[in-house]
Amino acid sequence: FGQDDAGITQDFDQPGFTDYAYGYLPNDRRHRFKLWGSVNLSDNVTVGANYRLDSPRSQSCLGWHPTDVFAQGYGAASHYCLGEPSPRGTAQKTDWISTLDVSARLKFEMPTGQKVTFRADVFNLLNSQGIQKRNEIGEVNYDPTNFPANPYFPNSNYGLPTLYQAPRSVRLGLDIEF
Fold it and tell me: How far is it, in rounded angstroms, from Cα 140 to Cα 10?
């Protein structure tokens, strides 16, 4: 933050930031479902799958504190949005995140006696593109001298995605036992 006092922190050293700081934590997910398993199709071939479904995360709307001058020095970091209270995690949500990963293992023995395992893993097989995080800054500026007009300047990027689910990827591997 470029502040001179290295011992001060934003969240709890300024009393204004405790206003409406109660609520859902940033990584709060109400539900997480997992299914996984593998099967040996033969002595040499194994296939497996891992499915995970995560419920949405609760996210906030952060803005300038309307009454605490010290908190205002930190910019849009309090649990107020456009001058109104905005308790933590009550403003917006991310998407449900669904991920299907699959794997296969092929084992064989070389003529020289080495045992070889070829591995292939596909992560996010269905290439799901769920939103993992959104912009939580509700205001880009605050000008208390702009009274009686609105002193809050809304952020046009508020609520837009800032992080998506990792795209489909493939990992290949080879194990050789000597």
Answer: 18
Cα 63 from Cα 153, distance rounded (Å):
10
Specify whether the CB–CB gap between 112 and 38 falls below 8 A: no
Tens-digit pLDDT profile for residues 82-132: 889 999 999 999 999 999 999 999 999 999 889 999 999 999 999 999 999
Contact 79, 71 (CB under 8 A): no
Burial class (CB in 10 A: 0-12, 13-18, 19+), 154: middle
- Provide the 8-state DSSP code for 137: B
pTM of the model: 0.79
CA distance 51 to 37: 9
Residue 140's region, left for phi above 0, alpha for psi from -120 to 50, else beta, is alpha
DSSP letter for 169, please.
Answer: E
Kindly state the tokens that stand for 39.
């099967």
Q: Alpha-carbon distance 76 to 138, whole Å?
A: 8
Distance of CA 40 to the CA centre of its chain: 35
Strands (E) located in 55-96? 58-59, 80-81, 84-85, 92-93
pLDDT digits 0-9 by tens, 37-62: 999 999 999 999 999 999 999 999 99
- Residue 158 makes CB contacts below 8 A (sequence gap 6+) with 61, 135, 136, 137, 138
